[in-house]
Amino acid sequence: MCIRDRSILVDRINQGIIRSERYKTKVAILSVQFDVSEHSDEEQSFSITDDFEKAVVQRIKGTLRSTDSVSIREEEEQMVSVLRTGLHEVVIILSDIEDADIISVILFRLFSSINLPIAAGGIDFYVDADVGVSIYPLDDEDGLALLSYSNSAMREAKKRAGSNNWQFYSQDVHLASIRHRRMEVELRLGLELGELVPHYQPKVCLDRGVIVGAEVLLRWTHPEFGVVSPQEFIALAEQSSLIDDITMRLITTACRQLHEWEAAGYDNLTIAVNISPVQFRNPEIAKKIIAVVIENDVSPNQIEFEITETVVVHNMQTAINILNQLSGAGFVITIDDFGVGYSTFGYLHNFPVDSVKIDRSFINDLSSGANAAAIISAIIAMAKSLSLKVIAEGVETEEELRFLQDLGCCLLYTSDAADERSSVD
User: pTM value?
Assistant: First the structure.
């Protein structure tokens, strides 16, 4: 069905806005216009064109619903509307967008999908597209205005040479989108060229005063852009499906490093690796991890996996299954950045957790007031009651160290500055 009544489109956009207000997310409106290489005679054009338009809509819907990194909210299916608005014209409404950067990923997957031949009426159509994008609430909070802005942006996209152009209504967002695409390409290349380098943050046993292991962290120095922040390149990896490859390579690197340390006479050390929350959408991730460690001939109890509380809350049953597989194989499980975000202790009874790592922000705040000290004391007392080890990081003064020792914190990461930290989390 072709919807030409703008009020229906605006109503759909407003529905998305209401939903996004509730969940504190964003809505993206994509105005799409196609250029089709195949033309038929007038007697055939109506039926073939109608079939073609329907096929395009189905292709788009399939692409959007298979883009698992689009949906931020795990509890409910993302709201997606794909509406035909005219000859070779479609409006796409996406809600549940938490980070505007993901829209760039959607666009590239959309172009890749529709550039494949689309069959209709016995004819293969070859399609290019121009797309304009507006975003709630970045561009406006009114549905009609957002629709107008996406149409305006689409017309700007059509003015540029070539095909498959896109334009955000906001120039700042558009420039960020171009950089996002460039950095995704550079990340893929950098991964192959070995630009992502592992660094090891030593873990010290406070009781014995000796190094017992390390956390492996990634850093990326780009030949043109210099040091790329971990927040940027890890987000890129999660959105572009590179995160699995990076994590498996990192686990392999950790295994090889353990063998090197053992050959140098340092036995029984452990290495911690972060697992991204995105990876917990894959129920096969535990099997892949176990296979990599077995292949590298390392004892599982020498590998520690750090996960965030986000994994626990948003992917409860899947997380339980995956963590049970990893724990059952002998791996150590740690909750990273503990005490921030959802700050719930109840789930620890249901998960095979061995230790918790106190979020560094509490350590940094120790000197500024009593609240941080009270929170740290509560975390350590809770962990002790559950027979969990407590790990701290970001300790910079003797006073902070003595405070943690007095409370019974047993492990400590000797860390770099917080803004230099680059782990897969």
Answer: 0.69
